[in-house]
Write a structure and sequence with these properties.
Shape of chain A: flat
Largest sheet of chain B: 6 strands, parallel
Low-confidence stretches of chain B: 277-281
Number of domains of chain A: 1
Strand content of chain B: 5-15%
Mean pLDDT of chain B: 90
Helix content of chain B: 55-70%
Distance between the termini of chain B: 74 Å
Number of domains of chain B: 3
Mean pLDDT of chain A: 91
Radius of gyration of chain B: 25 Å
Distance between the termini of chain A: 65 Å
Oligomer: heterodimer
Structural class of chain B: alpha/beta
Shape of chain B: elongated
């Protein structure tokens, strides 16, 4: 068993717990932007996708890497842009 | 270009930026800044990764980055706010697809080079393939249901659960075989991918349209988990952290949705709610509804001191949010107050109604969650229900035979009067009759929600 597996499990468990603490306090009015913002964050797979696409190990891994980069970037750009578009609509009542 | 230690620390900075961004989502006032913070974290992670590569196939890589960004940008700009559930469903699927592809490429790389894959890497690759593929195909089915490309009704067949369990067992068996066979085989890999895609479809088709808030939240969680598993495969901390954050976010949202329907997650996923029309609820025979003219409804609203608007999926379908705001402004001009009561499962995803009302420029401090506004219905002159049904059905409180008994509802029936905007007298989801429509205090205003609201607006203007 590699050493990283244990490190990874530790990180995973702590981050899950942290996530639960953070998300539990997000008000219901922001649940949709929370989900699309979460989509953007899960676009972090782009890091793995870039490594695969650039590895230069023959056409299969290049094609798979290219597609992975495309999908992950759709998540990153689409997720952040649509979340921003939603959040800029949320406003407080102006003082009259 | 940069040492692995520095690289790892910079990824950690990116992770902290994601966490700060999520923290800022705890208030609408800071949320937009939070989203930008999170975006900076992402940019940092991408730049660090690119710097790390010494030789690359730049054309393919750059093309991928540009194509993905362009499509994502176009989607984000062109999507209608009413279609936000479809957008999130697709993004969930893309996340699954990206993880599936990275996991697949890592596997093929080692197999083609004839390298042995260690058992723990092998397990994480198989998990990435399974979760990524289920997320991808499940999300596409959820999208098709939301877009009404396919029926929103549950699709069931005999021995469905047994069949799904067998497929899952086959995936586990093939993965184990792949891990322990000394031969370099590709067919179990393809079989695992194919069966996992099939499993995603089979798990999503028996879930009805109105249960989509739970499914989307859960798939959101899976897409995060798939990212986390990819992090284990390529041994990258920031992927594990980000994936875990999104994974727990999706799970919490699913729980909130389930609680708001008084059902267990297992019941939502495997119960095929609404597949058969239940005859246990009270029937409407012998009851009459009272319909109201636009003129009378307008007078009632114009002179109301306090009005509570209850939006539902029908408002989204009719794109009526802007007309709702016009009506509310008129009532306010006449001296009344208008508040909005939002049930957690109103619409097709968590927070769907809030986004639509925000789009119509309604301030968020007028939107109230169920537990905060329920006590106010007692003193409310008129409650207007716009395209909501099950979430205002008093049977959930009073009729133990009703399929939705026990579900927390908005206590619209406790107000002084209630106007329900509804297209026709068709029963709601699962064919449950709604006693509210037959109550003496309730008047029905039939017609398309947007058209009815428009008529109310012009009528009140003439008063």
């Amino acid at each position: 068993m590699s050493e990283y597996l244990i490190t990874g499990i530790v990180i995973f468990v702590l981050a899950t717990y942290l996530g639960a603490q953070l998300i539990g306090r997000v008000p219901p009015t922001l649940h949709t932007p929370l989900m699309s913002g979460g989509n953007a964050i899960s676009g972090i797979t782009v890091v793995g996708a870039i490594i695969v696409a650039a590895a230069g190990l023959g056409w299969i891994s290049t094609v798979l890497g290219f597609l992975a980069v495309v999908f992950a970037m759709m998540n990153v750009v689409g997720g952040y842009a649509v979340t921003d578009r939603m959040l800029q609509m949320f406003r407080k009542e102006e003082a009259k | 270009m940069i040492s692995p230690a520095i690289e790892r620390l910079l990824y950690l900075v990116a992770a902290v930026l994601f966490i700060t961004g999520l923290k800022n989502l705890q208030s609408p006032a800071t949320a937009r800044r939070g989203n930008a913070t999170s975006g900076i974290g992402m940019l940092l992670a991408i730049v660090v990764t690119l710097l790390e590569l010494e030789i690359l196939s730049p054309a393919v890589l750059i093309a991928g980055l540009l194509v993905g960004s362009a499509i994502g940008w176009w989607m984000a700009r062109s999507i209608k706010m009413t279609s936000m559930p479809q957008m999130v469903a697709l993004l969930n699927g893309f996340g699954g697809a990206a993880s599936l592809l990275v996991g697949g490429a890592e596997f093929l790389k080692s197999e083609l080079r004839g390298e042995a894959i260690s058992v723990d890497t092998g397990i994480t690759i198989q998990l990435t393939l399974l979760i990524g593929a289920v997320t991808l195909s499940g999300s596409l089915i959820a999208w098709a249901k939301l877009q009404e490309v396919m029926t929103g009704k549950p699709i069931t067949f005999p021995a469905q659960k047994v069949f799904n369990a067998l497929i899952f067992a086959a995936i586990v068996g093939l993965s184990a075989y792949q891990l322990y066979t000394p031969d370099s085989l590709l067919w179990p890999f393809y079989a695992v991918c194919g069966l996992s895609l099939l499993l995603g479809v089979l798990l999503t088709i028996p879930i009805g349209g109105a249960d989509m808030p739970v499914v989307i939240s859960l798939l959101n969680s899976y897409s995060g988990l798939a990212g986390s598993m990819t992090g284990f495969v390529i041994q990258n901390d920031v992927l594990i952290i980000s994936g875990a954050l999104v994974g727990s976010s999706g799970i919490i949202l699913s729980q909130i949705m389930c609680k708001a329907m008084n059902r267990s997650l297992a019941n939502v996923l495997f119960g095929s709610f609404g597949a058969t029309v239940t005859a246990t609820g009270k029937s409407a025979a012998g009851l009459t509804v009272k319909s109201i003219s636009v003129e009378d409804a307008a007078i009632q609203l114009a002179y109301a001191q306090s009005v509570i608007v209850v939006p539902g999926y029908g408002m989204a379908v009719a794109q009526a949010q802007h007309t709702v705001r016009e009506l509310a402004e008129l009532i306010e001009k006449k001296g009344g107050t208008v508040k909005y009561a939002i049930h957690p499962v109103a619409g097709r995803m968590p927070g769907h109604m809030n986004v639509l009302l925000a789009e119509a420029n309604i301030p968020y401090d007028k939107l109230f969650a169920m537990e905060d506004i329920n006590s106010e219905f007692d003193n409310c002159d008129v409650a207007i229900v716009i395209g909501a049904n099950d979430v205002v059905n008093p049977a959930a409180r009073s009729d133990p035979a009703s399929p939705i008994f026990g579900m927390p509802i908005l206590d619209v029936d406790r107000g002084k009067s209630c106007i329900v905007l509804k297209r026709s007298m068709g029963a709601g989801f699962a064919g449950i009759e709604n006693e509210l429509f037959y109550a003496p205090k309730t008047s029905m205003l039939f017609g398309d929600a947007k058209a009815s609201l428009g008529k109310l607006v012009s009528e009140i203007k003439q008063l």
